[in-house]
Amino acid sequence: MGFTKCFKMAVATIWASKVRSLLTMLGIIIGISAVIILVSLMGGLTQQITDMFNDLGTNMIQVAINDRSLTKRVEPDAMYQLVSENPDLLLDVSPSINVMGTIKSGTESKSGTATGVSEGYAMMRNLTVQEGRFIQYSDIVSKSNICVIGTYQEQNFFGKGEAVGQKLKINGTPFIVVGVLEEKEDSAVGSGDDIIYIPYTSAMRLNGSNIVNSYTLTAANEERVDEATAIIKQLLGRKIGDDDYYTVISMKELIEQMSVIMGSMETVLVCIAGISLLVGGIGIMNIMLVSVTERTREIGIRKSLGAKQKNIMMQFVIEAGTVSCIGGVIGIILGAIVAVLAGKALLDATITPSVTSIIVAFSVSVAIGICFGYLPAKKAARLNPIDALRYD
Questions:
Q1: Hey, is 334 helix, strand or coil?
Q2: For 340-357, how does the pLDDT look when each residue is reduced to its tens digit (9 = 90+)?
Q3: Sheet strands (E) in 118-207
Q4: pTM of the predicted model as reported, rounded to 2 decimal places
């Protein structure tokens, strides 16, 4: 008896006991669905985070100086000199100084933060000015009271298209709005549109300090980020000494760390979901053992007519594999649908289950059917035909 005939018999047996077969498949369906959903959602979340870092620039390098005593510092001139001396490794640098306090225009006021940056910051961070202009070198030199705002501030204080040329007070000091950035995140509070940029020299004056504790640099290209990071650390080592007082981290390194963390989380979640597959496999083995008992006389008749052990074993293994495969297909379809719907609802993104995850899920379902169907098939194949014919 060949594979095709065994498969047809398996389908006929499954169809004859539809409810029992569906309940047998349930563990496989749930397990495969869970794996597809979790892998798809984790893949979508990882891609979202990666895209966010890519938008910031994979060649971006952040430097933070962590000295509360304020005695260890690196002057902006030293960082600019490092960039000019290493044009093959570094493209630009911008000091970054936060000014926290009250933002006010007319009678409207709110607590917020203005960030002091250089004229090159817009290009480094891929910022687009939709109205007016960004900070210029002359603004840095003259410590001009000008600012560039996000669309949240524009809508909150002035109204769309009416901000350029207006005054915005930062901790009581009036600044002229010279530019409005392109909307990125629906102009929501706390988002990338809730931002105010001013010349870093003006930020120093507002803070009453000439100390810069944060710098943003861009490497010449992604391939040379590690070399660029190394020369930055050399400069900080000479200026500050103890590496406990500074941190240098690149977006490339953050992406790699994030990928490792997300990969570990995905593995853990898939292992948890895999418990359902184990339970489903046990369910298949249990039902197949019951099926062997119920069909003892049938096995005896087939053996008495010349069926060999391998024929009986093949029949029951294929039947178990078919049950598992059908459950796997249903699980894949159900998991894909739920993954797409969950992606829209939870991540606001279009999630597409990968072909690899589908192939792996289907292969696992087949393997489970074969592995857990082997013991019942072996039991059926070893039945003595005389005892089987006597079974009532």
A1: helix
A2: 888 887 777 778 787 877
A3: 129-132, 146-149, 167-170, 173-181, 196-199
A4: 0.67
